[in-house]
From TrEMBL:
It is a peripheral membrane protein. It comes from the Eukaryota. GO terms for biological process: protein transport. Its main location: Golgi. This is Conserved oligomeric Golgi complex subunit 7. InterPro entries: COG7. GO terms for cellular component: Golgi membrane. It comes from Penstemon smallii. It is found in: Golgi apparatus membrane. Belongs to the COG7 family.
Length: 839
């Protein structure tokens, strides 16, 4: 049995636990006493061994103590000796420092004098050499050795720089400028010939001469001037073809008159959109060939020479390009094609009023822009080895002709969308034929409902056009246009809604029914458009109500569609925020990068920046103020509370409220008509006739005014069912639709009850006979309300109770109302009507 001594060194050692553990490790057949005896013996032996070992090590340690003490004393003596040596060395260094400082200062002065003397010597040599070069430079030029002449002029420039502004050499400085211009002009024909005939060696030699005399710009100028001519010829080829086609057509017209030539012999005029891709293809091929040749001829300059040529080309043809794009956009619409005008002419307002900007104009412009975008991507690939700034300048030059249109994009979309909204035919058929009064209402409502998805499609198409044409850089201007046009559309709907009030007859004043009174302009409109609704049949009546109920579907459709469009617009703006942030940040960051070596981080950023270049980034990099404004808008769009169309959203809510008000007025108009002049009916003040027989003094049946209202209210749920089904099928929420219909049912019933109570309060005096008849009427209406699951208002219940009670018992009834089941003000009013005094 082995004894583990590590457990005894643990701070948390517990003897009991250790013994119990040792006992558990014994063999099951061994007695516990024997196991414990063996364990005790082993522990004793181990302890004796430890004691012996401790004695031996203690004795050895005591023997080593004197030796260690002697070593410590010796080390202390050595340290003292070393300290003294170091102090002596420091003292020596301080003395040496004082003397050496004076020597170094003297040497510095000597070195300064020496360098000044050397500079003066070199300046004198340059001055002497400058005079000599000035006297021999004409001979060098006369020899025709251009490299030697370039070297001579370079040396003269160096000498003038060394001499500085000395009056004696002013003439030589002027002479040098004249000679450099002279050499530049001598290089031009040779360089032109080398470029035209692809002479690589000669071109390189001429380049070296120009660089030697500091005329690098002359190389770019000559190169661009030579190659710009054939490219301009490619561009002007379009006008030549157009002229030739016109001449051919004129000849055909003359020939047709003289010899009746078939009309198929006409030569069609080529369109700019059809011709532009071929121009870009030829230009791209030309630039690719120049790129390859310049790699051999100008390996240090090809990355800037060819892009410079493209920039100059686009700058030269920019005005003509804008004019052709403008005319090409006008060719797609007959009205503008006949006038030879385009988008810019429409925006300027120079065209007749009947000529409007159409979607086709913008689609033609975007098509041309897409063609240019394909060319720009090819150029980006071709110039991928160039510096990012050079590539940016080239791409900006390519898109430059479209900048005029992009700056006015918001105005263009506003005109297009306004024209689309104004072109909607929302007015229904106008009819005044008796028996079909609801036709105008239902047709108008149908057109209003059908116009909503059409307008939403117009707005969505505008957002898509903005991204396709401007890359989203004009999103802020587009949103303003969308908001304005949506306001225009909703204002049109509200105007139609106002006219429908006259069509429905709800703006006609109804005396003493709480209806709206006509004043001012409303009275004029009612005189011309309003009419009193006079239904000839129940079928016509309910068809009219159904037409009004459909307006609720219009409001619901407008609210939901605009809400969905706003959510989609916010999503689009959030996506633009991410894309534009990456593009603009990558491009602008890389422009400010210090050029490091190919293995540095600048190369990685350059690749990222070039990959992120797009049409929006190209515009926003140079206009930080516009970029800041746009990014603020895009950042706000990430907030769920953000309204992309703030004014339109408020107007939609106002339109929905106006619709609810109109529908309610239409649904309640029959009730108003039936309750009109109710408080002045002669039956309330009629006196009981004296007869020889005991007959009831009132009718046992309710009067027609209340039965008509009751039948109307009981039939109304059936009329609301189609509305509920329409909402359910569109929103997939049958419970909500049913709740919607029930809510309107209760609203009309509550309104009818309120109108009835208002008329009852207007009764000045009522006889017993009138009171009994009125109690029957009230009871009938109460039964109708109960059938509709409507609670009976306490005021109406009080009227019913008080009118059904005989006059002589009315006072006791009111005083015995201990449970306060009666409405006391109403009960007091009934007592006043029936001439009962409570005091």
């Amino acid at each position: 049995m082995m004894v583990d001594l590590s457990a005894f060194s643990d701070e948390k050692f517990d003897p009991k636990n250790w013994i119990n553990g040792a006992v558990q490790q014994r063999h099951p057949q061994d007695p516990v006493e024997k196991h414990l005896v063996d364990l005790e013996m082993k522990l004793q032996m181990v302890s004796e061994e430890i004691a012996v070992s401790l004695d031996e090590q203690s004795s050895s340690a005591l023997l080593r103590v004197p030796r260690a003490s002697r070593d410590v004393l010796r080390l202390r003596d050595d340290a003292l000796s070393l300290r003294n040596s170091v102090a002596n060395i420091l003292l020596f260094l301080k003395k040496a420092e004082g003397s050496s400082a004076e020597s170094i200062a003297t040497l510095a002065k000597v070195d300064t004098v020496k360098r000044r003397m050397e500079a003066a010597y070199e300046t004198l040599q340059d001055a002497a050499g400058l005079t000599q070069l000035s006297s021999t430079v004409e001979d060098v030029f006369s020899s025709g050795d251009l490299p030697r002449a370039a070297e001579t002029l370079a040396n003269m420039r160096h000498c003038l720089t060394a001499v500085g502004e000395v009056a004696e050499f002013a003439n030589i400085r002027k002479q040098l400028e004249v000679l450099e211009d002279r050499l530049d002009s001598m290089v031009q024909p040779r360089l032109t010939d080398a470029l035209n005939n692809r002479k690589v060696n000669v071109a390189q030699e001429m380049r070296g001469i120009l660089i030697r005399i500091g005329r690098v710009k002359s190389l770019e100028s000559y190169y661009t001037k030579i190659h710009l001519k054939p490219i301009k010829k490619l561009w002007e080829d379009f006008d030549l073809k157009q002229q030739s086609n016109k001449l051919a057509n004129e000849k055909n017209e003359v020939g047709r008159v003289s010899s009746s030539i078939d009309s198929q012999s006409n030569v069609s005029v080529i369109s700019f959109s059809y011709w532009l891709p071929s121009f870009y293809d030829e230009l791209l091929l030309y630039l690719e060939q120049e790129w390859k040749w310049c790699i051999l001829a100008f390996p240090d300059d090809y990355k800037t020479l060819v892009p410079k040529l493209l920039n100059e080309t686009m700058s030269t043809i920019s005005a003509s390009f804008v004019s052709r794009v403008n005319l090409a956009t006008g060719d797609v619409v007959p009205e503008t094609k006949s006038l030879a005008k385009g988008i810019l002419d429409i925006l300027s307002g120079d065209l007749p009023k009947g000529v409007k900007l159409q979607t086709k104009h913008l689609e033609a412009l975007i098509e041309l822009h897409n063609i240019t975008g394909s060319f720009a991507r090819n150029i980006q690939h071709l110039f991928s080895d160039s510096d990012l700034n050079v590539l940016l300048d080239a791409l900006k030059a390519i898109y430059l002709p479209y900048e005029t249109f992009k700056q006015r994009y918001g105005q263009m979309e506003r005109l297009v969308l306004s024209g689309g909204v104004a072109g909607l035919d929302l007015r229904g058929v106008s009819t005044r034929i008796i028996g079909v009064q609801g036709v105008e209402l239902s047709e108008t409502v149908r057109r209003m409902e059908e116009s909503i998805p059409h307008v939403i499609l117009l707005l969505e198409a505008a957002m898509e056009r903005c991204i396709n044409f401007t890359g989203g850089s004009e999103a802020d201007e587009l949103i303003l246009a969308l908001d304005d046009v949506t306001l225009q559309y909703i204002s049109t709907l509200q105007g139609i809604l106002k006219s429908l009030r006259a069509v429905c007859g709800v703006d006609i004043a109804v005396d003493n029914v709480g209806a709206k009174k006509e004043t001012g302009s409303d009275r004029k409109e009612s005189a011309s458009h309003g009419r009193k609704v006079d239904f000839t049949s129940n079928e016509e009546e309910w068809s009219f109500v159904q037409g009004a109920l459909q307006i609720l579907v219009v409001a619901d459709c407008l609210t939901s569609r605009t809400s969905v469009f706003e959510a989609s617009l916010r999503s689009t703006l959030a996506r633009l925020s991410t894309n534009l942030s990456i593009s603009v940040y990558g491009s602008s960051l890389d422009q400010n990068q210090t050029h490091l070596d190919d293995k540095g981080s600048s190369g990685d950023l350059s690749v990222a920046g070039k990959a992120a270049l797009d049409v929006a980034a190209l515009r926003l990099v140079d206009v930080p103020e516009k970029a800041r404004k746009l990014f603020n808008l895009l950042e706000q769009s990430k907030d769920p509370r953000f309204h992309a169309l703030p004014l339109a959203s408020q107007r939609v809510s106002a339109f929905a409220e106006a619709v609810n008000e109109l529908v309610y007025d239409v649904l309640i108009v029959k009730v108003r008509q039936q309750f009109n002049e109710l408080s002045h009916l002669p039956i309330w003040s009629s006196i009981e006739e004296q007869t020889a027989y005991r007959l009831p003094s009132f009718s046992a049946y309710p009067q027609s005014y209340v039965t008509n209202v009751g039948e109307y209210l009981l039939t109304l749920p059936q009329q609301l069912e189609p509305l509920a089904e329409g909402i359910s099928s569109s929103d997939a929420n049958a419970e909500e639709a049913q709740f919607f219909a029930t809510e309107w049912m209760f609203k009309v019933a509550e309104g009818a009850t309120a109108l009835y109570i208002e008329q009852l309060r207007g009764i000045q005096k009522i006889t017993d006979r009138g009171a009994q008849q009125l109690s029957v009427d009230i009871e009938y209406l109460s039964n109708v309300l109960s059938a509709l699951s409507m609670p009976i208002p306490p005021v109406l219940a009080t009227f019913s109770t008080c009118f059904s009670t005989p006059t002589d018992q009315l006072k006791d009834l009111i005083k015995s109302d201990s449970g306060h089941q009666l409405d006391l003000p109403t009960a007091n009013l009934v007592c006043k009507m029936r001439g009962v005094r409570l005091d």
